[in-house]
Amino acid sequence: MKKIVDLIIEELTPAFEACGYDRQYIRVTRSNRPDLCEYQCNGAMAAAKAYKKKPIEIAGEVADRAKASRMFSEIGAVAPGFINIRLDPAYLSEYVSAVFADGKYGLETAGRPETIIVDYGGANVAKPLHVGHLRSAVIGESMKRIGRYMGHHVIGDVHLGDWGLQMGLIIEELRDRQPDLPYFDEDFEGEFPSEPPFTISELEEIYPAASEKSKKDEAFRERAQQATLKLQSGYAPFRAVWDHIMSVSLADLKKNYANLNVSFDLWKGESDAQAYIPGLIADLTDKGLAYESEGALVVDIAKEGDAKEYPPCIVRKSDGAALYATSDLATLIEREKDFSPDRYIYVVDKRQELHFIQVFRVAKKAGIVREETPMAFLGFGTMNSKDGGPFKTRDGGVMRLETLMQEIVKEVYKKIEEKQKVPEAERQRTAEIIGLAALKYGDLSNQATKDYVFDIDRFISFEGNTGPHIQYTIVRIKSILDKYGPGAAAGEILPACSGTEKELQLKICGFSEAVESAFFETAPHKICQYMAAVADAFNDFYQENKILAEEDKERQAGWIRLITLAKDILNTCMDLLGMDSPEHM
What we know:
The chain has helices spanning 4-18, 43-51, 55-66, 89-101, 134-149, 165-177, 200-216, 218-232, 236-259, 270-273, 277-286, 324-338, 353-365, 401-419, 427-444, 456-459, 467-484, 499-508, 511-520, 525-544, 553-576; strands at residues 28-30, 39-41, 72-78, 82-87, 115-119, 153-157, 290-293, 296-299, 313-316, 343-349, 375-380, 383-384, 452-453. It contains 21 helices and 13 strands. Helix 6 packs across helix 7 (200-216), helix 14 packs across helix 15 and helix 18 runs antiparallel to helix 20 (525-544). The longest helix is centred in the middle third of the chain and has 24 residues, at 236-259. Among the domains are: 4-87, Gyrase A, domain 2; 165-259, no CATH class. By secondary structure, it is an alpha/beta fold. The strands form 4 sheets. Strands 1-2-4-3 form a 4-stranded antiparallel β-sheet.
């Protein structure tokens, strides 16, 4: 189903061409001045230079030609050369009815579905998820869901940090604490224990203790480095410890990501790419792309026309060790072999931008990834406290994500108890649903690249541009529909008889454009903007019209059908962002 903006362009094309102007100049957008018009065409502004005419003259000619169209109730030229448009209510109601009947509310899904890898999450094993993991998880999950809704085959990969010095530190700290374990007995023969020698709580305490010890104890750090080397060389006892670390950590990570309504198709990590590194280094060397610089192996990535200097990408340190860039390039080799993706989206802290510029350029230069394959770096900003600094606990530590979620749910529960509108048996689950939406919407409503301030009082408010406000709007519509009874979708959407009704219809028409923009611009905040606009339009309409008391039953049935569509679209948008709405609020 075509977007309404595209249909307006089609309708204006004969008028432009009849006046002697090329259709390529037609540009139509939703107006940001609804008091003046609903849509605006600036084609005359673009064509003025080519045809050596004043924009207002071109706009006037085209508007006069297009006045006979049944699509427009008003069309006219205004200085300096815009064409202002209002849609005919009958035409608009027909379009909205078609949106209602369409399985995806007017969205045209991909004609050629792509295989897309979304790399997000990036948690380190043996550590709890903390607030710094929030943005990657919720932004990446939304991009995965939006891509799938567009009709693409999207694969989400958590890409765990599971193969580095942290493993050696844990192994050696475990040795100091439990030296009698069979993993540290060189004479041990037979099967290693199937039960891990630690719980998740113990493991999460072991790593920071080991890390702190390594800063003060050089001998311990040297032992950890040697343990890491032995692990990476395939030493069976340490591989068995690593297996325990992974099993315990993955169970906890999966539980906590599930609490965020975030899931992954692949639970791969840096360790999975290690087998490809020798071949990667050999290939870069054989192709003459890698060369030695101060003992390290590097690849130049600078291109003619670069606005600034980019340093070479180091693919092997002077001591022979691999780096993150090496691992990321090897991961690309694995992904190309397994999936041959048409597109990549990496959701990572924006401070890693240089790293990914280097990785992407080496990958294209070496032919690991096809030159034409889009590789998007969706770099996100930080979540800060009200004082402008990094978000931390009261004692200055990094807050666990689980703790943050518990605090939000607790505050939401208090509000629910105060309002006394949710059945007691539903209150805890309702608080969890609202709390999650408050957290995720508070994050996703900001442009991903921007830093933002975490404000729990604002985020859990049932008013304003918040997740709970969107949920409250959905619950309000459901309440109206429940009172109306069966047959809520049986009416016919009629031409709007008020400004608020027409505005709600117009907002509903923008669903496909919002989803497409969010996908192609890797901008999930566009979905939040759209949801807020639909919710505001509904609430304005609701305040002006007594839906359940309306005596004109045909018009009432049309309104019921219209708000049913608004509810369904809002629920779909919520799902695209990994949220839900409760039954009561």
